[in-house]
Amino acid sequence: MKIKVLYEDKDILAIDKPSGIAVHADGKTKEKTITDWVLKNYPKMKNVGEPMGEIARPGIVHRLDRETSGVLLLAKTGKAHEFLKQQFQDRSIKKTYIAIVSGSVKDERGFVKKPIGRSPRDFRRYSAGRGARGEMREAETFYRVLKRFGNFTALEVRPKTGRTHQIRVHMKYLNHPVACDSLYNPGHPCPEGISRLALHAHKIEFQNLKGETVKVESPLPNEFEKVLK
């Protein structure tokens, strides 16, 4: 597995996660994950962070969905893990995604403030609509239009909170689900040249342990570049 390192100091690591690779194992499949790469290349990170049952999560402070690509932060030390975790909880970490969604988004800019719960019909899904079940967790997402083309719109998306599937759920709520999303947008066409979930974690901004502001950017995948040029 080839993983590009985007930023590294003695405490923190930022990598460019490819689409199609899970961050950590789910206990059901034996496919290679980001945590396998971490354990191989940074064995000292083995006990950093919090395990999830028997599943190791070395250095993991946040996740990207399996099909989402882009910047992923990892903590190399216990102190860094707590430091980054607190920034995520305080919502001081700034995340920017590029999403290509179905349909032509009307407004140039928008804001979704809609709590997210479990889907009443599919245990794999979450919902911001009526009928969502379980604990409803606050979720806020800002977006702006980058380009409209055909029956699709490219957006810059900035989630203020970090709920599971948040961007995918909020875009679905707006009736503009992320393109090529087999879970929230099944059976709908994909933009030409794109066959994966059209969501990319483009930039992240955080504080390192020296108190410096660090900005890390993952280049757009080639298929996104072709669409946006």
Summarize this structure briefly.
The protein has 229 residues and is an alpha+beta fold.
Describe, in plain words, how this protein is organized in 3D.
The protein has four helices and twelve strands. It has 229 residues and is α+β, with helices and mostly antiparallel strands. It has two domains: 1-90, Pseudouridine synthase, CATH 3.30.2350.10; 94-203 and 220-229, 2-Layer Sandwich (Pseudouridine synthase). The relative contact order is 0.18. The model has no long low-confidence stretch (mean pLDDT 93).
Secondary-structure map with pairings?
Layout: E1 4-8, E2 12-17, H1 34-41, E3 69-75, H2 78-90, E4 94-102, E5 109-113, E6 116-118, E7 126-127, E8 133-137, E9 140-149, E10 152-159, H3 166-173, E11 199-207, E12 213-217, H4 222-228
Parallel strand pairs: 3-11
Antiparallel strand pairs: 1-2, 2-3, 4-10, 4-11, 5-9, 6-7, 6-8, 9-10, 11-12
What is the CATH topology of the largest domain?
Answer: Pseudouridine synthase
* Rg over C-alpha atoms, rounded to the nearest angstrom: 17 Å
Corresponding CATH architecture of the largest domain: 2-Layer Sandwich
What is the overall pLDDT average?
93
Q: What does the overall shape look like?
A: globular
State the CATH superfamily name of the largest domain: Pseudouridine synthase
The topology string of helices and strands comes to EEHEHEEEEEEEHEEH
